[in-house]
Amino acid sequence: MNREEIGSYAGPIYEALKEGKALSVAELKKVTGLKDAELNMGLGWLFCEDKLYVGVEVIRKKETEVIGWK
């Protein structure tokens, strides 16, 4: 695996979050179609670039961490 491949996983995450709605990791996985490892690498890439934030929302009466675009 190379740097370009890892960076390419960031694209679907950006597309999912660009509208401004924060999503849970499970929602991101479903929307992007990325596998667990691909999603984690893409998230790591974007977090290192300081493009994302982590927050907490109540989803179905349960506090859930969500990830959003800064």
Low-confidence stretches: none
Distance between the termini: 28 Å
**Beta-strand residue fraction:** 15-25%
How are the strands ordered across the major sheet?
1-2
Average predicted local confidence, pLDDT: 94
The coarse silhouette is globular
Helix tally equals 4
Outline the structure in words.
This protein has helices at residues 3-8, 10-17, 25-32, 36-48; strands spanning 52-59, 62-69. The protein is built from four helices and two strands. The protein is an alpha+beta fold and 70 residues long. Strands 1-2 form a two-stranded antiparallel ribbon. The relative contact order is 0.22. A hairpin with a 2-residue loop joins strand 1 and strand 2.
How would you sum up this structure in a few lines?
The protein is of the alpha+beta class and 70 residues long. Helices cover 50% and strands 23% of the residues.
